[in-house]
UniProtKB/TrEMBL annotation:
<dbReference type="InterPro" id="IPR013534">
    <property type="entry name" value="Starch_synth_cat_dom"/>
</dbReference>
<feature type="domain" description="Carbohydrate binding module family 25">
    <location>
        <begin position="515"/>
        <end position="606"/>
    </location>
</feature>
<dbReference type="GO" id="GO:2001070">
    <property type="term" value="F:starch binding"/>
</dbReference>
<dbReference type="Pfam" id="PF16760">
    <property type="entry name" value="CBM53"/>
</dbReference>
<feature type="coiled-coil region">
    <location>
        <begin position="625"/>
        <end position="659"/>
    </location>
</feature>
<dbReference type="InterPro" id="IPR001296">
    <property type="entry name" value="Glyco_trans_1"/>
</dbReference>
<dbReference type="GO" id="GO:0009011">
    <property type="term" value="F:alpha-1,4-glucan glucosyltransferase (ADP-glucose donor) activity"/>
</dbReference>
<dbReference type="Pfam" id="PF08323">
    <property type="entry name" value="Glyco_transf_5"/>
</dbReference>
<keyword id="KW-0175">Coiled coil</keyword>
<dbReference type="GO" id="GO:0019252">
    <property type="term" value="P:starch biosynthetic process"/>
</dbReference>
<feature type="compositionally biased region" description="Low complexity">
    <location>
        <begin position="124"/>
        <end position="139"/>
    </location>
</feature>
<feature type="domain" description="Carbohydrate binding module family 25">
    <location>
        <begin position="679"/>
        <end position="769"/>
    </location>
</feature>
<feature type="domain" description="Carbohydrate binding module family 25">
    <location>
        <begin position="328"/>
        <end position="421"/>
    </location>
</feature>
<dbReference type="InterPro" id="IPR005085">
    <property type="entry name" value="CBM25"/>
</dbReference>
<feature type="coiled-coil region">
    <location>
        <begin position="443"/>
        <end position="488"/>
    </location>
</feature>
<feature type="region of interest" description="Disordered">
    <location>
        <begin position="115"/>
        <end position="213"/>
    </location>
</feature>
<feature type="compositionally biased region" description="Polar residues">
    <location>
        <begin position="198"/>
        <end position="209"/>
    </location>
</feature>
Length: 1238
């Protein structure tokens, strides 16, 4: 592998040093170094590309041009019809009156001419005298101070000036701007409505230019210099002026006012300006200096002699022309290849460049190929060169060089950085970050929407084509198989097909026609159903379909009105489908069938009237197409409805999770309002009593925004001490408009050494609503050897899938890397969808990578051709550790070779623990530089050496429940790393375990109809596995592997106690230990099948039915890291009976002694009695003996017998609780972000 991060030891330049690709802006410690007004004028005036050499002459010429325009305006006004001229005069007088009240001069001559009544023959306008400096354009009815250049969002004279458009520049030189003499100033300039004397109310409705690029040079210069700025050619010094209050009563804000009013403290970022705020008035000299700088830079670029430029600089690595980049102009960069130890002698030199800490990219280009320059090499130098355009919006240039492959010259890892002259200031760039981010987010969202719409359009086209092809094939099959479909079809059937015997059935008409109705008469007396006693209120069922049982229908038959003495006739009406060549049918009464000795009955159907076989097939093709299309559309609409309902349910659950978390920390921290909103103030309340700051008299808060990435932090702020009897300190902070996360810590010092409360190193983070920008998503790559449902052995596989889906639903990118086992070749989930991704030689073999989507997650399958994963199972080979270590490295190699840079590598258990060490040792130094590692322990009993290694190398590691973390924290395997150890309980995927949408249940149900739903499930389970159905007894279930961990002796005792108390017992699972399996085989033989059934197998559909049918589920584990069984059981309304250990204690709250703990954990309530809450959900015990189990199980059975209504309420309550990944996913996301900081 080649190290892509080389460093430079020698070389000379004048750059400041910053990290390549860095996105964190430095924090400003001072005030603005330049007024925003100066920059706005500079950015806009430079667009004209005029070369002004004589400022007084140019100003005079522009004023004369404006005079001619005024004359044209007066002429136009006098040509108006009387009514229109009268209206114009009234509007003008209103503006003039407001201006006069403010003490401003008004062009009375234009007012007089505009107010003059029209006379016959009058058509010649009077000359209009243009005002002389320092008066401004009469169109504004006032003398506007020089600083009042319009800024984005402000209005002047009715014209809304848009923000400056992004500068578009190219790495090659564009032609220089023409001199002033080459511009035709006699062309009608494009002026703002205000420059023509139009009133604000009128002009505000007119369409103006959408961007500055649409305003021509002359018109724009006039707009800036004549209408908005009062330039005095004799005044070279800045002078303070006042901004008058506008006629609306609000202060008209200038760019300079905005600049001077802003502060690095967000608490004052959005304050309104005070009246009469003094501002600076720029001089003509300031404008001229800007133009002069640009002109000088332009001349240097076009006329410099390369050998003269590098004279006495042959030992330099970088030389710029001009020496300091100028905004809006081109720049020539010379790179001395011989001064670089990294790139010396390389055949190709590229430059990667950007601006403003790499945030601003060149439009469409941020990489250039350098060419050898003409500079002499006599003094040992070897200069290569390129030319770029510096954007107006830049304050800094950043670049590095490379050879087009993996060797970089990046100034010893600090990049080449040069300040830009005449561009935007750093502070203004930071202040506009929110707008830029919002625009970028909007552009991205629009692009994603357009891409999604295009993808959907293509999908719909493909589906339509598939439906057409499917309809063609089906119609052709019917046509070609027409005779076969009709074979043995009749319109009347005699018993035994003997015409001499009685009629069994007949149809009317005798020759039924496709697309019409027909009546079937059935003689039960002559049928196999003749001996059945059918009550008067019950009927026979006719089950029929066409062309081999397509479009099946069930119809209840009726007694025919005409009955013969020796026959009992039943009748039913059939709707004969248009595509029918034959009707297939049977008759049944419950489980008794007349199916023509398993041959089924068949009625021959004739072609529709006036149709031939060919024309009928053509008509069928169109009908089939419509059927397929409508079926698909209905299915899609139903899917959309369900997905919308699921999303609404998720949002509701997630909102509850956040509300509960706020309640839980309220004794330490809360805010007013409770939901932090962008652009608003928030008051933070903090009680240090239960923190490291307990007892401190002074508390400071300091923080930032957007995971500490925002350039405008706040604080340290001293918090206001609580009033007498109070407990919470408080501070008020203003939230920036572009904040999506509020981050902060507390301390007892204003800065430096002291005591800090950083929430155990995780910091305090609060979500911010209504941000201008969305929070960027993380990229998480799970590296695992299990994944449900395609490679599930235990809970690990469930977690990889469900956690990945839950985090992805929160807007993050999640991918899974998995070995490609041999048994995947027969997986129905993967059938037909795996696609080739890449291949490479590594580890002494060829490695192939394919990809597919599993449960909505992108999965990459690593398949080495050394046979490591040509196995029928996940585990069980003699070399599992060797195989999985190889997989860990191959997965990282795939990420490196495909240029993927995840934010997080999430590895699981001992099987992929090796990812942590090998990443930091073998991949992080050599190109896979971005990820941090998170490791999850699913069971500490296996692979302790590997787990210990991963705990040392990862940035954060977790286990699957808080209680299990407490129980294992002192284990020597991980005890030295517990400072980065956290317990986060697992969840279940509510869409995979959903009793409302479940194909394996006899009926769907929710918490609202749990009693009826579980009754139907009990009936179906008894029928399926052979349990007795008499007396609807309670059912106790166990779904578990039969191992020592799972409490084998207690499982046996649960079966005994259940049957002994009059219930039924069902077990699904098997024992890997033959001795244990033999014990359970004997136990199964000892019970009557009516009361207990043991299913020793893995059966996913049956597990769903058992959860839905059982009234209680027993989980008597000796230890349980988390456990999913109890949470799945509650999802289906089965009450859990568990031993309180690990995750079982974190999820099951005993109905008799856990009310306070349940209310706190489920609802964040500190007083369940005060709040009237009961969140308990099961029965628990703590011992390991049968008597302890009896204590919990007997209480559950007693409740079922003695208070059935209460027990059913408990079943409803457990169904309503949220044990999904909503809360754990948020915990993992915070953990991922903390890992990024580590």
């Amino acid at each position: 592998m080649v190290n892509t991060r080389f460093s430079l030891i020698n070389g000379h330049h004048q750059s400041s040093l910053h990290a390549f690709g860095g996105r964190t802006n430095p924090r400003s410690n001072g005030k603005y170094c330049m007024h925003r007004l100066d920059e706005v004028i500079r950015a806009r005036v430079t667009k004209t590309e005029l070369q002004v050499s004589d400022e007084e002459a140019e100003l005079q010429r522009l004023l004369e041009e404006n005079n001619r325009l005024r004359k044209a305006m007066a002429d136009a006004a006098l040509k108006l019809e009387p009514e229109k001229r009268k209206k114009f005069a009234e509007e003008y007088q209103q503006i003039a009156a407001s201006a006069t009240q403010l003490g401003l001069d008004v062009d009375q001559q234009l007012l007089k001419e505009a107010s003059h009544e029209s006379a016959p023959g009058h058509g010649q306008s009077q000359p209009v005298q243009a005002p002389q400096p320092p008066q401004a354009d009469v169109s504004l009815s006032a003398s506007i101070p020089a600083s009042d250049v319009r800024i984005p969002g402000s209005r002047r004279g009715g014209l809304a000036v848009p923000p400056p458009a992004p500068s578009s520049f190219s790495p090659v030189a564009s032609p220089p701007s023409p001199p002033i003499s080459s511009l035709n100033l006699e062309d009608p300039p494009r002026l703002s409505p205000g420059s023509l004397g139009v009133s604000a109310s009128a002009s505000s409705t007119q369409a103006g230019p959408s961007s500055l690029d649409e305003i021509d040079s002359k018109g724009y210069l006039l707009d800036i210099l004549n209408l908005s700025v009062d330039l005095d050619p004799d005044d070279d010094d800045d002078q303070a002026v006042s901004v008058p209050e506008s006629s609306s009563g609000q202060v008209t804000r200038s760019a300079a006012q905005v600049s001077t009013s802003l502060s690095s403290d967000p608490s004052v970022m959005h304050k309104k300006q005070e009246k009469e705020t003094p501002v600076k008035k720029p001089s003509v000299r300031a404008v001229t200096e800007i133009l002069s700088e640009r002109e000088a830079a332009r001349k240097m670029v076009t006329s410099h002699v390369p050998d003269e430029v590098v004279a006495n600089k042959h030992h330099w690595m970088v030389v710029l022309v001009p020496e300091r980049p100028v905004a809006g102009e081109e720049l020539v960069i010379y790179f001395n290849r011989n001064a670089s130890d990294v790139l010396r002698g390389r055949p190709s030199i590229n430059m990667l460049y950007g601006f403003n800490k790499w945030e601003l990219k060149s439009e469409g280009c941020d990489r250039l190929n350098l060419s050898p320059s003409s500079i002499s090499r006599n003094q040992g130098s070897d200069f290569w060169s390129c030319r770029i355009k510096v954007p107006l919006e830049s304050y800094e240039l950043n670049f590095v060089f490379n050879d087009g492959e993996n060797a970089y010259e990046n100034n010893t890892g600090k990049d080449f950085t040069f300040p830009v002259q005449g561009g935007i200031s750093y502070d203004d760039w930071i202040d506009s970050a929110g707008d830029r981010a919002a625009k970028a987010a909007a552009i991205k969202a629009a692009a994603e929407k357009a891409a999604a719409e295009e993808t959907e359009r293509q999908r719909q086209e493909a589906l339509l084509q598939q439906e057409k092809e499917k309809a063609q094939k089906k119609a052709a099959d019917v046509k070609n198989g027409y005779e076969g479909l009709q074979k043995n079809g009749v319109s009347i059937m005699h018993v035994g097909s003997d015409p001499a015997k009685p009629v069994l059935w007949k149809v009317s008409p005798a020759e039924p026609v496709a697309g019409t109705k027909a009546k079937l008469l059935y003689n039960r007396t002559a049928s196999p159903l003749s001996k059945l006693q059918i009550p008067q209120d019950q009927t026979l069922n006719l089950r029929y379909g066409c062309n081999g049982w397509q479009k099946p229908v069930v119809v209840q038959m009726q007694h025919d009105a005409i009955q013969a003495e020796d026959a009992e006739w039943w009748m039913a009406e059939l709707d004969v489908p248009f595509e029918a060549a034959a009707i297939n049918f049977v008759i049944n009464y419950f489980e008794h069938y007349d199916n023509n000795n398993r041959q089924d009955h068949k009625i021959m159907i004739q072609l529709p009237k006036d149709y031939t076989l060919d024309s009928w097939a053509q008509a069928l093709e169109e009908r089939f197409f419509q059927d397929f299309h409508e079926e698909r559309k209905e299915a899609e609409e139903e899917a959309k409805r369900k997905e919308a309902a699921r999303k609404a349910e998720r949002r509701k659950a997630q909102a509850l999770v956040r509300e509960v978390e706020r309640r839980k920390v309220r004794h330490v921290l809360y805010t007013e309002p409770a939901v932090v909103t962008a652009g608003e103030e928030v008051t933070v309340y903090y009680n240090p009593r239960d923190t490291s700051l307990n007892g401190r008299q002074r508390i400071f808060i300091q923080g930032g925004w957007n995971r500490w990435s925002h350039p405008r932090p706040f604080g340290p702020l001293e918090m206001e001490a609580p009033a007498a009897g109070g407990s919470h300190f408080k501070a008020v902070v203003k939230v920036p408009l572009d904040a999506y996360k509020m981050d902060f810590v507390f301390s007892d010092v204003e800065g430096g050494d002291g005591t800090y409360d950083s929430r155990g190193g995780y910091d305090y983070h609060l979500p911010v609503e209504n941000s201008l920008v969305p929070e960027p998503g993380l990229y998480i790559a799970h590296i695992a050897v299990e994944m449900a449902p395609i490679a599930k052995v235990g809970g690990l596989g469930d977690v990889v899938t469900a956690l990945g889906r839950a985090v992805q639903d929160q807007g993050h990118k999640v991918e899974v890397l998995l070995p490609k086992y041999q048994f995947f070749n027969s997986s129905p989930v993967l059938a037909g969808q795996l696609k080739y991704e890449t291949e490479f030689d590594w580890g002494g073999t060829r490695v192939y990578v394919t990809t597919g989507v599993v449960e909505g997650l992108r999965v990459f399958f690593i398949e080495p051709r050394n046979g490591f994963f040509d196995t029928p199972t996940v585990y069980g080979r003699y070399d599992d550790e060797v195989r999985f270590d190889f997989f860990c490295k191959a997965a990282l190699e795939f990420l490196l070779r495909t240029n993927r840079q995840p934010d997080i590598l999430h590895c699981h258990d001992w099987s992929t623990a090796h990812v942590a060490k090998t990443y930091w040792d073998d991949y992080h130094p050599y190109g896979l530089w971005n990820p941090k590692v998170v490791f999850t322990i699913h069971n500490l009993n296996y692979g302790k050496r590997k787990i210990s290694e991963a705990a040392y190398y990862c940035q954060r590691f977790t286990t699957v429940s808080p209680t299990y973390a407490y129980e294992t924290g002192g284990n020597p395997t991980i005890s030295s790393q517990t400072h980065k150890f956290l317990g986060i309980r697992n969840g279940i995927d509510p869409e995979l375990w959903d009793p409302e949408n479940n194909q394996w249940l006899p009926t769907s149900f929710t918490a609202q109809n749990v009693v009826e739903g579980k009754a139907a499930a009990r009936k179906a389970l008894r029928e399926r596995i052979g349990l007795g159905g008499w007396g609807d007894k309670f059912i106790v279930g166990v779904v578990s592997r039969l191992t020592g961990q799972k409490g084998v002796p207690l499982i046996k005792h649960a079966a005994f106690r259940t049957v002994e108390r009059g219930g039924q017992f069902v077990l699904l699972g098997s024992a890997p230990d033959p001795k244990v399996q033999a014990e359970f085989d004997q136990l199964a033989r000892s019970y009557n099948g009516d009361v207990a059934r043991f299913c020793f197998k893995y059966d996913e559909p049956l597990s769903h039915l058992i959860y839905a049918a059982c009234d209680m589920i027993v989980v008597p584990s000796m230890f349980e890291p988390c456990g999913l069984t109890q949470m799945i059981a509650m999802r289906y309304g089965a009450v859990p009976v568990v031993r309180h250990t690990g995750g079982l204690k974190d999820t099951v709250f005993d109905v008799d002694f856990d009310k306070a703990r349940a209310a706190w954990d489920v609802y964040g309530s500190s007083d369940w009695q005060r709040d009237g809450l009961d969140a308990t959900n099961g029965f628990a015990f703590e011992g390991t003996d049968p008597g302890s189990l009896d204590y919990a199980l007997n209480r559950a059975i007693d409740a079922w017998y003695n208070d059935r209504a209460w027990f059913q309420t408990l079943q409803k309550r457990v169904m309503e609780q949220d044990w999904s990944w909503n809360r754990p996913a948020l915990d993992y996301i915070e953990l991922y972000h903390a890992s990024r900081k580590a």
